[in-house]
Specification:
Blueprint: H1 2-13, E1 32-33, E2 45-46, E3 52-57, E4 64-66, E5 76-77, E6 79-80, E7 85-89, E8 97-101, E9 103-105, E10 108-110, E11 117-120, E12 123-130, E13 147-155, E14 160-168, E15 182-186, H2 195-198, H3 202-211, E16 219-223, H4 244-261, E17 271-276, H5 278-286, E18 296-300, H6 307-311, H7 316-319, E19 322-328, H8 329-333, H9 347-356, E20 361-366, H10 373-383
Parallel strand pairs: 15-16, 15-17, 17-18, 18-19, 19-20
Antiparallel strand pairs: 1-2, 2-3, 3-7, 4-5, 4-9, 6-7, 8-12, 9-10, 11-12, 13-14, 14-16
Length: 390
Amino acid sequence: MKIALAAMLAAAMIAPTALAQTAVPAVVEDFRPSTLNQPGQSYPQVNSQGFVRFKITAPEARSVKVSLGLGGRGGTVLAKAADGSWTGTSEGPLDPGFHYYHLTVDGGTFNDPGTLNFYGSTRWESGIEIPADDAEFYALKAVPHGHVEQILFPSPSTQTQRRAFVYTPPGYDAGKPTRYPVLYLQHGWGEDETAWSNQGHANLIMDNLIASGRTRPFIIVMTYGMTNDIRPGSPGGLARFDIKPFQTVLVNELIPYVDAHFRTLADQRHRAMAGLSMGGFETKLIAPKHLDTFAYIGLLSGGTMSLNDVDKTPGYRERVKLTFVSFGSRELDGGRTGPPGGPRVDPRANADALKKAGINSVFYVSPGTGHEFLSWRRSLREMAPLLFKD
């Protein structure tokens, strides 16, 4: 089981190229500072086509390149100017949405001082946002907003105080006795509990969905999946990953804490679990074994649920209200849905088989994206209105 899981995780965790897979057009000179730049910083810049221009001041450096832009061919190489600055433009337009990146200066790894940092790839990385045509659904708008707060909860099993972030919807603090369903939403490998609110804009997606009347208000809980000490390529690699410690933290410690400290509807039919990438694998390992706890299951670029999975899980047909599976279209095109070297997995066929068997199965494909946050932002937008429809 662990070896098979490790192979699937390895397929899912490989960082995708952020370079859009299209013919390269001529560069339009309408570059503007990225929306994720540090205050007052002019670079990096993005143009209307999705090209990115970088500028770094490093007068003593001998070589500077950026990890974004050329995929496996080494990133965007910057050229040195007489004033000691290094400038370069990506070879082609990048996919819309959020991307991690870093600088390599004379062989060392550094963050870009011009932009904000986000936790990914087991470190704080630089981040950039390429405007998407459909960005309105995760934009900051003049609508009622919920709150994202940090909580610290006791974890006897790990002998620590652990951290989670909790989104409560607009109106939660209005003094009303309303109780809410809860979605436990997991990050991917290399990330932590900050990912879904910082990189994913989960709170803004929910605010906008609630304001438009498209979804029922609910709480979202985001905690660390205890995954980043297991590294692909290290001795033992992902085969060493064991779900049991996190399962104990989530089911036996975090959920009771949340139910005791927030106005939740503390029963199975008002509780969901979902995750992106490795968080989806964690969801698949935990939720079907705890159908007394979770009624809704979401795998976002995190594997698939087959009819065989359902048949070997007692109570699945009766107790699971929704099985939601999603991928970016380029993940499907590239076959990144199952273990490398193993049989090709067809998640769409699996979803159709569940539906034909009378199971509420929804399959979503994010157009024109790969294993990246725009796929997962869109997936949350599509999944949220389907949750807790009682």
